[in-house]
Amino acid sequence: MASDVRALIITGFGLNCEAETAHAFTLAGAAPEKVHLNDLLDGRRALDEFHVLAFIGGFSFGDHIASGRVLANRLKHRLAEPIQRFIADGKLIIGICNGFQTMAKLGILPGLDGDYRRQTVTLTNNDSGVFRDAWVRLRVEPDSPCVFTRGLERLDLPVRHGEGKFLTLDDKVLERLERERLVACRYADPATGEPTVRFPHNPNGSVAAIAGICDPTGRVFGLMPHPEAHLFPWNHPHWMRRAIASTLPAEGEGVAIFRNAVAFARDSLV
Amino acid sequence: MVHRIEIGYRQGVRDAGGEGAAERIRTFLGLPVETVQTRTVYKVHADLTPAEVEAIRQEFTDPVIERSAVGRLDAPPFHWLLTVGYKPGVTDNVGRTSKTAVEDILGRRLPDADAVYTERQFLLTGAELGRAEVRRIGTDLLANELIETIHVQSVEEWRASTPDLSIPVVEGEQRPTVREYDLQVSDAELMRISSEGILSLSLEEMHAIRDYFARPELQAERRRFGLGPNPTDAELEMIAQTWSEHCKHKIFNAEIEYSEDAGQGRPAHKTTIDSLFKSYIRRATEDLRGQCPWLLSVFHDNAGVIAFNDTWSLAYKVETHNSPSALDPYGGAITGIVGVNRDPFGTGRGAQLQINVWGYCLGSPFHEGTLPEGLLHPRRIRDGVHKGVIDGGNQSGIPYARGWEVFDERYLGKPLVYCGTVGILPRTILGQPSEEKKANPGDLIVMAGGRIGKDGIHGATFSSEELRKESPAQAVQIGDPITQKKMTDFLLEARDLGLYSCITDNGAGGLSSSIGEMSTSAGGAELDLANAPLKYQGLDPWEILLSEAQERMSLAVPPPHIEALLDLARRREVEATVLGRFTDSGKFHVRHGDRTVACVDLEFLHSGLPKMHLKAVWTPPQAPEPPLAAAPAVEVVLPDLLADLNLCSIEKKSRQYDHEVKGLTVVKPFVGVYNDVPSDASVFLADYEGVEGIVLTEGINPHYSDVDTYHMVASIIDLALRRAVGTGARLDHMAGLDNFCWPDPVQSPKTPDGHHKLAQLVRANMALYDYATAFGVPLISGKDSMKNDSTRGGVKISIPPTLLFSVIAKIDDVRRAVTMDAKCAGDLVYVVGETKAELGASEYARYLGRLTGHPERIGASVPRVCASVAKATLAAIAQAIEKGLVHSAHAPGKGGLGVGLAKVAFAGELGMAIDLRRVPAVRVDRDDVLLFSESNSRFIVTVAPEDKAAFEEALGGLPCACIGEVTDEPHLRITGLDGNPVVDASVVDLKARWKATFDGI
User: CA B4 → CA B43, B50, B233, B395, B585, distances in Å?
Assistant: First the structure.
């Protein structure tokens, strides 16, 4: 059955998580489509055709100058109005890793006071100074308005980035993120479940252990860890231990993020 | 004009790059730097208004963490400024992207001549630093003068100066010239032409070329094409490239007279081998073809292709990129990984790039002695090589499956940088078998991807030589993964639309090689170099033909598809250019505009190379036995071995490589409770729909070559297969790749031991045939790099004969995969296979040699492999895994059972109680020999107590014993042969020792 919820995955220029992100949407019951950025810029395809937009992981333009910077500039100069309209229409946007970096630099996160054009947060070099691939434990904030993390408490996901340290323009921005519950998930110590600013459980030194944030509507969400890389239970590094202990879940923990988005879109957008 | 923009961090923002640089300056160079701040300089060469420059400045700057200025950015106090820029013509990837960003900001395209150039700045504080020290920080750590410029200013000089606006433009407007070479000269003169031109051609080969051009029937034809009687530079270069050791594998195809002196008084054995490749490698696969119906395309394409299932085929290739990595570790290595990506990409109709592997043979990063002039310190090489492959793989979106390092001082002269890539192809594309391709006469020659510069000229011939002080700087390229990713994305679209009929990559030898190869399937080619897109002007035709500038693929495009292909390329911002067409003329005809610069018969080009005749003499080396009498207690030895360079943890660097992208990873490169111990093999799902998986692993042990390369090869094949099968691979759907790296094995005044080194090569090939056929594992692809010697400052350093044996296999259901870590307290610990007194060239023997000051006492009893027992053991383990009876399986290798048991225990953060008296062994009467002998064909397995009987039954009558159990208490307790405890160590402490060696570097 062709799905009613249409998800757009923008590809090209060094982005590289299109296959697994598409599969995540498929598992969640949506109809994903991979569209090259230039086909949107040329007007061959339009954002309006879709309900959910994913800015995926990868190295757009090689992370040259800074991660997400060059892609954000291209979007700002050549696709700004369709993106603003997409948000205003009540649709959903998720940005993962490079997508999160791009959204932060484009200014569509955190979207304080409905301003989706000004950059107030960033993702920059990990404190270690190097790229890191490791699994992390996320604590999901239960009172966040984030649509994507509804009903979730914790997630095990891999991080894979060199520029994942979350920083805000100033303390006021950070205070507002906390006050308005826009922090959707944080890096946690698996032993305690509590947020941590210490390596390695916080892999990059993010302030307040922030791994992902949303806008005040909860419909625009960005995070550094990769939910689309935990679609199968046997992606988890301890899947064999879990299988021996008969605690292996039926599907990977990352799928829930996409199910939430598709459910929301089906209820409110289709 | 040039506009300068400087960007630095805001006060209070952590500068991780600067902190890292400061740390390395202190620990590696031992210089008293206090702080380092980093900045980036963008020099925008374009006609811009002040408002445009200001807009660029703003949009290049992150307002949250950065500040910037047009011209000069003020700075907090510092003592020295070190500026690192690129030399003219060197690839500046960030600069290239910056130009795109500028165009987006301006909303207009800039002319070709406009560009953005980047520089890195380091502001150093340190009152005790002098100018010479700061320069050294540049030359020895932060920059490579082969490709980069270093500029040092004191703070006073900086204040007094105006901002620098110079840019590294390639100057050169000379008209393209073509030289001719008169070959009717003396032999000495012929050799001078070969040597000065870095053609690497022998006298016999020069004679063959001379005689070809002297053919009377050729002369009339040459006049018709406007060519003189003598070969042009383009013709000589094309032939030299095609005939290079790198491309033609002359040593592997030589006729070899091999003799064996088995020992005193025994008769010498003599035989003549017509091509090692045909006699051993290809023959092994041919012999196995009947039992391996999944072999699809072997040896003739850029990568070997096997069927995986009804939906997918797999293409796998492993390469080395050694010489360039010695000169510029970062550039050489990134080019190595993005270069090998193009092999599966250029195989069949083009494979999607799925998984990378890497491995390096290096000198010790802790090397303290002097180094021959011109060699980089091995720590620099290691850091640069890792960084290059990390950036290349990560930015391409390809996960890595396997990574390893081997250390030996003989790799000081030339590091070995192995990179490999698995690609995946649909079994059919538009109804055609995906592994088949053919250029047809009339098809257009199209080059897609990057532009051509002088980079990498002579790479093919240069890599066929030893490394000399005067080795050419332009042999180094810097790969650009993003240009390549754009190109591969575009070409996969074009492939699925059926827009081309043949594809191959431009690697060593550039267009000369790619079009030369493709023209054989069509029957000829006519190429116009004047159409080739250049990075800058001033290249002679032969340079355009030979350039190894990266990120380029060559295509054969049927004329009806050319519009669609070029249109798609424009829409994907990928440059694609028609350079000519394939013909059936039998000639490789190269023009530059109207002028013919080369016209060579394909028959001569590909078959005119004279065969080499070489001699190999095998005399087994005599190595005294290890000084066992001086051995410390095993509880001292075990942690020492775990900390040894060749056995310790390399997780710190490995974590910087992405292994999760694509979301298909099942058994990762690191496993265990804390995901910090290397897996025996890695497993990836083939796609998102099924549960069938790809298993990858490898074996390498160059130290065994010091005793006998025959047993070296037997051992690494045995090890690789144990690792694969112990992780769950099918034994009957498994293929091997052989990558030889050898010291020059051709007897000459430079290589007085060439007969021995060639005999080592012969014996390695004999073992490859014997064991590949015995195990039923066909060889599908391979490569050889035969001149891994370095002569600098009068010192010759030759690598030990090194073979990497890589395995690709299938697992039917990834949920049946098994990892090596102990998982449950109370599980039984089994050792499968016999332990023999085989310490020859083992880690333990070499440890004892170093400890006692007798490094030559490595012993002669190198581990051997009994193929029938080994195969039965693999089959039994596969059966036990299939039945779900195995909680963990590990193939002990270097360091033997002792190191293996420790790793299995500490991976699971559990203890073990082990009794050595129960270990199946043959004539072993010492605890240390039992623990550290590296006998082959063994497994360490943990089994749930309730599965004891079933497991033992699965093992049939094979040597196998339960030697203890996994314990909750995290201690490794080992009872010796005399019944007394010989090891009682905390696994936490053992793991800490194992991790400490590379902590912080």
Answer: 5, 12, 42, 28, 54
**Distance set, CA B603 to CA B512, B520, B524, B609, B649 (Å):** 15, 9, 10, 10, 52
Measured between alpha carbons, how far is residue B688 from residues A230, B362, B684 in Å?
A: 12, 38, 10
Check: CB of residue B318 under 8 Å from CB of residue B362.
Answer: no
Instruction: Please write the tens of the pLDDT for every residue from B567-580.
Output: 999 999 999 999 99
B497–chain A Cβ distance below 8 A for any pair: no
Catalytic site residue from A161, A226, A230, A236: A226
Query: In which band, very low, low, confident or very high, does the pLDDT at B199 lie, cut at 50, 70 and 90?
Result: confident
Counting residues of chain B whose pLDDT is more than 90, the rounded percentage is: 86
Tokens of B69: 């200025």
Q: In what order do the strands lie in the sheet with B148-154?
A: B66-70, B2-9, B35-45, B115-125, B80-86, B148-154
Closest C-alpha among B1001, B998, B985, B907 to residue B639: B985
Percent with pLDDT over 70 in chain B: 97
State how far the Cα of B83 lies from the Cα of B152, in Å rounded to an integer. Answer: 6
SS (H, E, C) B150-182: EEEEEHHHHHHCCCCCCCCCCCCCCCCCCCECC
- pLDDT digit string, tens, across residues B770-793: 999 999 999 999 999 998 999 887
Of residues B833, B938, B955, the one with CA closest to residue B890: B938
Q: What is the complex's ipTM, to 2 decimals?
A: 0.97
As given in the structure block, the two tokens for residue A16 are: 């590289």
State the Cα–Cα distance between residues B782 and B249, nearest whole angstrom: 11
Buried b (16+ CB within 10 A) or exposed e, B527-549: bbbebbbbbbebbbbbbbbbbbb
Question: Across all residues in chain B, what is the average pLDDT?
Answer: 94
A169/B16 Cβ within 8 A? no
- Best of B37, B490, B658 to disrupt the A interface by mutation (most A CBs within 10 Å)? B658
β-bridge pairing A165-168 and B80-86: unpaired
Distance from the Cα of B67 to chain A's closest Cα (Å) equals: 12
pLDDT (tens digit per residue) in A25-66? 999 999 999 999 999 999 999 999 999 999 999 999 999 999
- Whether A127 sits inside 8 A of B673 (CB atoms) is no
CA distance B175 to B177: 6
Residues A18, B591: Cα–Cα separation, whole Å = 42
CB contact under 8 A, B394 and A131: yes
Residue B196's pLDDT band, with cuts at 50, 70 and 90, is confident
Contact, B333 vs B392, CB < 8 A? yes
- Ordered alpha helix ranges (H), B300-328: 322-327
User: pTM score > 0.90 for this model?
Assistant: yes
Cβ proximity of B814 and B683 under 8 Å? yes
Question: What's the rounded mean pLDDT across residues A158-187?
Answer: 98
- Residues 6 or more apart in contact with residue A213 via CB below 8 angstroms: A109, A110, A121, A166, A177, A182, A183, A184, A221, A222, A223
In chain B, residues 662-691 whose CB comes closer than 8 Å to chain A: 662-666, 668, 671, 673, 675, 685, 688
User: Cβ–Cβ contacts within 10 Å for residue B332, how many?
Assistant: 27
Tokens read off for A256: 């829930």
CB contact under 8 A, A129 and B19: yes
How many CB atoms lie under 10 A from the CB of residue A169?
15
> Is the predicted pLDDT of residue B474 greater than 80, yes or no?
no
Local confidence band at B144 (pLDDT 50, 70, 90 cut-offs): confident
- The least confident of B125-134, B319-328, B555-564, B876-885 is B319-328
Cα B454 from Cα B461, distance rounded (Å): 15
* Residue B269: per-residue pLDDT: 82
pLDDT over 60 (residue B467): no
CA–CA distance, B636 with B666 (Å, rounded to integer): 36
Amino acid at B244: S
